[in-house]
Automatic annotation (TrEMBL):
Gene3D superfamilies attached to this UniProt entry: Periplasmic binding protein-like II
Pfam family for this entry, one: SBP_bac_1
Protein name listed in UniProt: Sugar ABC transporter substrate-binding protein
Organism of this sequence: Cryobacterium tepidiphilum
Lineage: Bacteria, Bacillati, Actinomycetota, Actinomycetes, Micrococcales
InterPro entries: Bact_solute-bd_prot1, SBP
Length: 465
């Protein structure tokens, strides 16, 4: 078995608090796991009575006893294609196990509201929970909301925990304990225009220096077309900047738990990312672009290179959405001084509520939902999974462009399991570490900005201890 990594080996929506009139503890507050807050319980009942819940029972009611006798499993999931596929397969699970599954399904904001109220109240009304390891994973693990699954993941050799990629596993591991099983992954890749490279007589860039040189040449020889585009808004850009940071040998937090965004490696990464956009980006580029705006520039034929999540590739290859759909290519993130190190992260995972009285059945469900066969079927439906065997199976990549599948293979092998600082206050951290990105894009003093941000980020880390 692989050695379990500490948390530091490890989307974009912030964790929002449920807005109610009673003083319910916020999901951003650290609380003791089994403290049942009376007002929160009342708020939970009020919330459900308001009809915010979308529930579907695949098999009807049942007893809610302990592990030995429960016949109904309560599963809370997010609105997602992954969820739709799992729901369609539930009759198979119920027939095989005799366990009836009651699914509650929410949008991301509603899901956060539910967890805010229920988990703080110590509820046992959730057995299996779908959560975002990079957004609320550290908080949930630190507060004891997630059951330690270490023994369970290693107990079934046929299910094969070693098949899961290291990056996603690192993000669902806390203090050497497995607290979740990754179900959906995402990697960063380089999008590029084949026609523009051919016209310029250029090969696909394999290094950061080659990327800069190609972006420079294409912008100089193609009026109105940028050499490079990417996210520029300070919080949104953090995730895509992270691959540059890792490839330059940096990270957000060091092994000692201290900020590392003022290291020579980090400062070089900030300066390089900013220079690509400042010198070779679109004219009068704004500093409030997230992926829709950056993607639009690329798909309208206004940029040669674009770094973005692989999960968004269809926006560039669909003729209905992209003017350059027939000329788009994909490649791994170019190598920096530390190599090609894109993020390889789990955007969603499954965990077991530690207050559940039905943990055995909860694990049976997770084992079934994340089995090799189920992962393959879901990936064929367009949802990238975390099992290496599925990525190595031709069926698992049949729906992807061939060059994209090859680029993803590099990211899954060398990828880093986080694309933002792994802290409790994720939105605040992203604002801090994203500020030097904007400074670099606008041609400011990146080193000074990194030094200032480093102090603020270290204060945040100190406050969370």
């Amino acid at each position: 078995m692989r050695s379990l990594s500490a948390w530091n080996r490890c989307k974009d929506a912030s964790v929002r608090s449920c807005v109610i009139t009673a003083p319910v503890p916020k999901i951003g507050d650290t609380v003791k796991r089994h403290s049942v807050v009376k007002v929160a319980a009342v708020a939970a009942a009020t919330f459900l009575a308001a009809g915010a819940l979308t529930s579907c029972s695949a098999g009807g009611g049942g007893d809610n006893g302990g592990d030995g006798g429960s016949k109904t499993l309560r599963v809370t999931l997010a609105n997602h294609v992954w969820t739709d596929t799992i729901k369609s397969k539930l009759p198979e699970f119920e027939k095989e196990t005799g366990i009836k599954v009651d699914v509650s399904q929410y949008g991301e904001d509603q899901l956060s509201d539910q967890y805010n109220v229920k988990l703080n109240a110590g509820t046992d009304e959730i057995d299996v929970m779908m959560y975002r390891p990079l957004q609320e994973g550290k908080l949930f693990a630190k507060n004891g909301y997630l059951t330690d699954l270490t023994d369970r993941v290693t107990s079934n050799s046929d299910w094969n925990w070693d098949d899961f990629q290291d990056g996603p596993v690192g993000a669902t591991t806390f203090e050497d304990k497995v607290v979740g099983v990754p179900i959906i992954t995402e990697q960063e890749v380089l999008y590029y225009r084949k026609d523009l490279l051919e016209k310029a007589g250029l090969e696909v860039p394999k290094t950061m220096d080659e990327l800069e040189a190609a972006a420079k040449k294409i912008k100089e020889t193609n009026p109105g077309i940028a050499g490079f585009v990417a996210r520029t808004e300070k919080s949104a850009a953090v995730t895509q900047f992270s691959s540059f940071l890792y490839s330059f040998g940096g990270d957000f937090i060091g092994e000692d738990g201290k900020s590392t965004i003022n290291t020579p490696e980090a400062k070089k990464a900030y300066a390089f990312y900013g220079k690509l956009i400042h010198d070779y980006g679109p004219a009068n580029v704004s500093t409030d672009m997230s992926w829709p705006e950056a993607m639009a520039i690329f798909t309208q034929g206004k940029s040669a290179f674009y770094t973005e999540a692989d999960s968004l590739y269809a926006n560039a290859t669909d003729p209905a959405k992209s003017k350059v759909s027939d000329t788009v290519g994909f490649a791994p993130i170019p190598a920096g001084p530390a190599g090609s190190k894109a993020y390889n992260v789990p955007s969603w995972a499954l965990g077991v509520n530690d207050a559940s009285n039905n943990k055995d059945a909860a694990w049976k469900f997770i084992e079934w939902a994340t089995s090799p066969d189920m992962t393959l079927e879901i990936q064929k439906a367009g949802v990238p999974g975390a099992r290496q065997s599925v990525w190595e199976n031709p069926e698992g990549t049949a729906t992807y462009p061939e060059d994209l599948a090859k680029a993803i293979a590099v990211s899954t092998k060398n990828g880093v399991g986080h694309d933002r600082p792994l802290v409790i206050k994720v939105p605040e951290a992203r604002e801090i570490v994203g500020t030097p990105i904007v400074t670099a894009i606008t041609g400011g003093d990146t080193d000074a900005a990194a030094a200032k941000a480093d102090k603020a980020f270290q204060q945040l880390l100190d406050d969370e201890k």
